[in-house]
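Q: What structure does this chain adopt?
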Amino acid sequence: MVLALASAVMADNAAASAGSVDFSIGGVVATRPDGQQRPLTKGAELENGDAIHTNSGRAQLRFPDGAYVSLQPNTVLVIREYNFDGKTDGSERGFFSLLRGAMRAVTGLIGRVHHSAYQIVTPTATVGIRGTGGLIVILPDGSTLIRGSSGIWSLSNASGSIDVPAGTSGLASTDSSTPPQETSGVPSVPPAPPRTAGSGFVAGDERNSAGNPVALRVVPLQSGGGYSANIAYGVTLAGTVGVLNSAGSATGSFDTSGRLTGVSSGSNTYQLISGAQTEFGTDGILAWGRWIGSAAVPGARPGIESYNADQGLHYVIGMPTPTLPASGTATYALLGATSPTYVDGHTAPGVFSGSINVTFGARPVAAMDFNIAMPDQTFALKATATSLSGSTFAVSAAATNSSVCSVACPANINGFFAGANAERIGLGYIINPGFTASQAYSVLGAAAFEK
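A:
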């Protein structure tokens, strides 16, 4: 059934050369979207829409961007969409579905600049990359286990996303309400067959846009001006109050890893003084994280707030998109997020999940659907931003909660598009359940999305 659906999706793609077979042993075949099969032997060409079945055999596939894939026995891999004309200009695509079995992968140029251009969908997760090598296994119960060997994997499902650096493992279970988790488990695959000359798995080169081998790393954001940022935090006034601010044309200060240490915009300045950063992430376009400890923030008296591990200042920052696309639609999946916190820290942090659908045009529309699961309750936050002002948006919203705000809890979302082609969205949010006049139960967070 799953394979039939995947093949049906591929039926609209025109046949095109999408790679070739480096070597093949056993009864490896390719099934076209129309159901026709052909054997895959060394040198065979691959096409968009091909479903590769290794059966009891193995195969190594080579792609024009320098990527390699090694398929284990009893594996089914679908080439959903592959496109590479030698450029990393945003038109490149490497979209695959691993329906069964296991695969080793070393990426090439696709995904190197535009990370969202490379994607592997499994029955329980979506796997993304940031210049990566590793192993992906579909376990007998359908869950997805990955092990990174270089770069960083991202492992996502409907409830969240985690980064899986080299030397670590991540697991997405069959329960879509449970976000992926880091695990100590290591994928196991059948032992390799005896090698003959030229038939071993080739570690694909890490390459730059000119095709030359390079050492790959995510280039962190650099200190300077021109950034957009969204910042959510608490201040102690007559009680504890939640604040959500946007910083446009902001100047950001970063450490060597790309962690934000200070940001200023107009008369507002935020500075980490003596504290730590948690839940930090960056892809070179956006950076996000949460400050804990001592920080200088606007509105604080006498200017300094001290946050414990269950509180914090949440941020997302990046270079705004100069001009939004004139037309088209896009779905943005969660790239990373801080754990939402109550401003008074009366419980442990929660979990954020969600997605954004955008229709571009003269009056762009961004439809947001988020879930904020705190230890003591869950909020469903839906909002639509219309008539976006340039690359930024701010919208008043309503969050629902079955126990305290079944009609509406006031909420606000501030966001911005980032990257040259609006390939990212960064946003901050605040929900005010209104339990007390001090808003001690306000929920805060920040998130990053990619299309």
